[in-house]
């Protein structure tokens, strides 16, 4: 990749050696109350309004190898005139700010820390509206941006009670109380739940703006009624057709266009709605970007001829969207057993590569065939499989090539709901404090209790329930695609897993799987090449 | 929207006592489900009156009978299958209908390990992992939009679990109704909600909640309108009274009838 934006970013690094020296000596640029860890690498950051373009294909280094990006319609020749790359609002952000090619069209924690250091916290990424824990906090102090700097989280602020499609308030099935408010936002007189414009703030990771034919398909499972509960599905306001409801953590946007408009109004703070031409250009760009890991530091190329057909960005470009892969015909991530058993030649380098590839294949086989008991997961156990159900990873992560649910993919696996969500241990010896808010949800008497969590639920993020007001949706989060994971840590919507190993450990703990160390490593290696 | 005058005997008091179902092969009861692991897929069982009954196997979303949930009791409405060998140690009920009781019950937590003697002696419809390329039962094909339809009265009936409202099964039943209504450009949608009661094997009667007929009818109207069918006039009615149950096919009373008029 030799496009000019990257040179622009590298130039920025070169211009800031003195700023970075202090950090190298163990100090931080803004070490008033919180040290910002040093980034592990220098990213290829694309700034808004940058000159140059984006090549039709390219690879970018990450800790586990390289992510591959392919633009189906060819290169973007002039980013400066393209709305995806332009700062469209007063805070200077562009879509690309949180959807960087090097980060699998999301934004990684490492990049966030790098841009913090390079700009002294002044990059538009750290805009007060949502790049800070709450707008009222002092701008530019690391503690004010701790959720972004520690977990890669953007503030998502939503009206409470929620509003229906007709704009009228929804009568929620539950009451919402703030139990813990470390950011101060949910109890703030201007921004909180008791303000004149009652608002709830939760904190979520930006999702990849790539492989969108899979996240917006109209294929299997997309019906006018939601397959999880029978209620009406969201409809694309432009076409009137049912949405797959797989965009965003809470499925609140039924189309890429709606998501872009939502992001412009919220994240970019644009004063006037984007024009049709701007929205068309953004949607067209997002519809042509494909990404997947292209090489692995141990396993080598993931795209070489004769290798597994489900790896690499070209697999995403060519693949069929919106079909089930939890079967032995299509597969979720087709590998054709190509790396099942590879010869050892005595060449240490090649033997190590073959060993790594065999581990990846074992991880794949584990993902597809290793059964465990899945229990008390709303919108999985409640949709016909029974509670518990003896199944595999691919049961939920079943969409061919992405590992998402094919449609209406919100589920509660416990990533935000207690008792399973990661919480800071409170004791006299731990100086760390909880970072995320905690809410108490009480289901009203007029509805049945949540089938698996009862009438009172504690959660860090009510998820889809903040849109529907439904008790059964509390803590349900739309499943993310499993592509490009190596380039966009941390994981889960609330950034609670810093590494792929932590992801695997979470599932091991949540479902009492009892993975061996070898199984865990194989799964980590497999997830890292997707 | 209005309530239709009751034309059948109303059942107000829960667990009224009546005669047991006339058919001795009927087994209607409320109990905790039990899940037993096998070398393949788990079995779902339940114990009643000193006997263990086989309810269903784990399959997938397309199964005609979906497994219940630990943590909740289940209403079993079944018939002993004549001559059937036990499965997983349980007397086979087939046909059987299962309705999960909404209120959690912490006593329902029995999960049994696999035992060689209880392993399945046949291939289950779906393994506990990836399928061979299709859902276990071809009962849930993606609905196909109707074309060139006759503009004539169409009638449908939506079935419900005991005390249930719309659930994950209904999209495959509602979608063809919606598509037909759009294709016919209907002028009127008539909806009648019903509620039922279950006659249990011990002779007690378990009526559905008093508001079920109303909520079912209103919800179906809301769903069709929410899915974009806003042009027709809606006539929404419900019948609060539940007919006296016989213990045989009581589930047929738990329904919403929908009539599309051109």
Describe this entry's structure for a reader.
The complex is a heterodimer of chains A (about 525) and B (about 260). Helix content of chain A is about 25%, strand content about 10%. Chain A has about 525 residues and is an alpha+beta fold. Chain A has a four-stranded antiparallel β-sheet with strand order 1-2-6-7. In chain A, strands 4-11-12 form a three-stranded antiparallel β-sheet, with no helix packed on it. In chain A, strands 3-5 form a two-stranded antiparallel sheet. In chain A, α14 packs across α15. The two termini of chain A are about 20 Å apart. Mean pLDDT of chain A is about 95; it is low at about 1-30. Chain B folds into two domains: about 1-5 and about 140-260, 60s Ribosomal Protein L30, Chain: A; about 15-120, no CATH class. Chain B contains two helices and 15 strands. Chain B has a seven-stranded mixed β-sheet with strand order 3-7-8-6-5-4-9, with no helix packed on it. At the A-B interface, α11 and β9 of A face β8 and α1 of B.
Apparent shape of chain B: globular
Q: Assign the structural class of chain B, choosing from mainly alpha, mainly beta, alpha/beta, alpha+beta, or little secondary structure.
A: mainly beta
What string, H for helix and E for strand, traces the elements of chain B in order? EEEEEEEEEEHEEEHEE
User: At the fourth CATH level, what is the homologous superfamily of the largest domain in chain B?
Assistant: OmpA-like domain
Q: Most extensive interface: pair and counts?
A: A-B, 46 and 45 residues
Task: Using the coordinates above, name the CATH class of the largest domain in chain B.
Answer: Alpha Beta
> What is the subunit organization of this protein?
heterodimer
Topology order of chain A in helix (H) and strand (E) letters: HHEEHHHEEEHHHEEHHEHEHEEEHEHH
Radius of gyration of chain A from CA coordinates = 22 Å
Q: Catalogue the unreliable spans of chain A.
A: 1-32
Q: Please tally the helical runs of chain B, counting DSSP H or I stretches of 4 or more residues.
A: 2
